[in-house]
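Every protein is a chain of amino acids, and every chain bends into a shape of its own. The protein below has been through that process, and both of its lines are reproduced in full.
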Amino acid sequence: MGISDEQWQSASRLPGWTRAHVATHLARNADAMTTLVEALARGERPPLYPSISDRDREIERGSERDGLALQIDLDTSAGRLHEAFDRIVSFTDPVPVELAAGVVVDATQLPAVRLAEVLLHHVDLDVGYEIRDIPDQAARWLLEWVCFRLQHRPGTPAMRVVSASGLSERIGGSGFATTIRGEDAALAGWLSGRGSADGLSGTDSIALPLLG
């Protein structure tokens, strides 16, 4: 479906962000990952975003553009990142990457990280794509990523996430862990604050923050 200029400037599902903010964030995330992969190939180990304040300013400025400029930015930045990801196959040794404070992955996991970013923010655009529309394999990858992000996140209730595809992860704080069961997409949506608890078991009285 097409999105008009007026719709791009309308509210997304992320508090305080329009759809144009979400699109600009995805484009700048692609640029940041491209720069990161190129630096890793040179043997450098920079953070994903050298300056969070600069990133936020770029998103704010970029959100003022029209729909054509946003679409071109999304397409070209994604194309550059796709080419950059080809370099990862040449990495023969583990290469740790710090995505944020305390969030470290191996460089070979960056494509999956980007996929999770795109899937969640596609839902955030509020253009008719819902968390349960995600294909099964991608939903499993997304659930694994969401569990990883919540594993030691302060304020996350103690839970054991058990999916219909066989994933079983202990996340959250110490103490008794409530078992939450369901399909991959439904679990990923609920855990990330982008879906209801419909179809899940064990979620009664558990409140979770939105996962950005």
About this structure: The helical segments are 5-8, 19-41, 52-62, 67-85, 110-124, 136-150, 184-191. The CA atoms of residues 180 and 203 lie 6 Å apart.
